[in-house]
Structures are given as C-alpha cells and as structure tokens.
Amino acid sequence: MLYKQKKNQGPKGNRLLVSITVLGSAGPIRFVVNEEELVADVIDTALKAYAREGRRPVLGSDMNAFFLYCPSVRSDALSPWETIGSQGARNFVLCKKTRTEGMEEVERSTRKGTGNWKAWIHKSLSIKISSH
Fold first, then answer.
1. Is the pLDDT of residue 21 over 90?
2. Fewer beta carbons within 10 Å, N or C terminal of the chain?
3. What's the pLDDT score for residue 12?
4. Over residues 57-74, mean pLDDT
C-alpha cells in the first residue's frame, strides 16, 4: 500500500501538546504546536483559541501585549524570538503586560492633543523622577 503525504505538512520536528494558563481564566488552553515554533506564534495561537472558545475576561488579539512564562523552568518571560521547544516544558502561563502609571498619563495627555511637546516631555520626566 502507498500512503500519500499531506500537502499541508508543517515544518519537520516534534509536536508538543502545550497547556497555557491565562491569568484570570477558568482553565488552561491546550493545543498542539511544533517544537520549532516561535513563542510569539504560540502566543498568537493561544489568543485566537481563547477568543474562539469565548472565554472571559476578553483579552484582545494584540500578541505584543502579552508575556509567556514557563514557571517550572525560569521566572522571567520567554523571548518572543525563541522556540517553544527550547524550554523542555509544556506548561506555560500567559500574562498581560502591565502598564506603568507614567505611561498611562503620557498617553492620556497625547490623546487629548492639548499642550505642546515641551510640556509633554517635562511631564513625562517629572513622572519618572518622582517614581524613583
């Protein structure tokens, strides 16, 4: 018997069942990825699966607004450019990036369109200096 190869086969390599826990959600999202996939692509896939399942809280689709952690291996966030299989783990935590108070204040003042650029720089510098 002859077996036909699938035309849509992805890159060669091992496939992993990953489990991604989203902070504030009821349970993990599980899906299969290639171990050579980039962390950024895994975050994107997780956000799409999360939205498709109608989970709460609503996260949005901007993968740049999230970090992926591997708590069993290391405490810092994974680089979006490393491969998911490089950690040797299958359980991850997806966290939304936090925004600092200074960033929110600067964004609020620039959205309004009020003031000039000198006032904006002075305000952002005073926020940074006062937070230290």
1. yes
2. N
3. 65
4. 87
Number of residues written out for the chain: 132
> How do the domains of the chain map onto residue ranges?
15-96, 101-131
pLDDT of residue 4: 41
C-alpha span between 46 and 65 (Å, rounded): 13
| Average pLDDT for the chain | 76
Alpha-helix runs per DSSP H in 19-116: 39-52, 101-112
In contact, 94 and 21? CB cutoff 8 Å: yes
For tokens 């890159």, the residue is 11
Element (DSSP H or E) covering residue 69: strand 66-69
pTM: 0.65
**Dist CA 9 CA 62 (whole Å):** 27
Q: How far is CA 72 from CA 75, 77, 88, 89, 127, in A?
A: 8, 12, 10, 8, 36
Phi, psi of 68 (to 5 degrees): -115, 125
Secondary-structure class of domain 15-96 per CATH: alpha beta
Confidence at residue 116, expressed as pLDDT on a 0 to 100 scale: 54
Written as one letter, the residue type at 56 is R
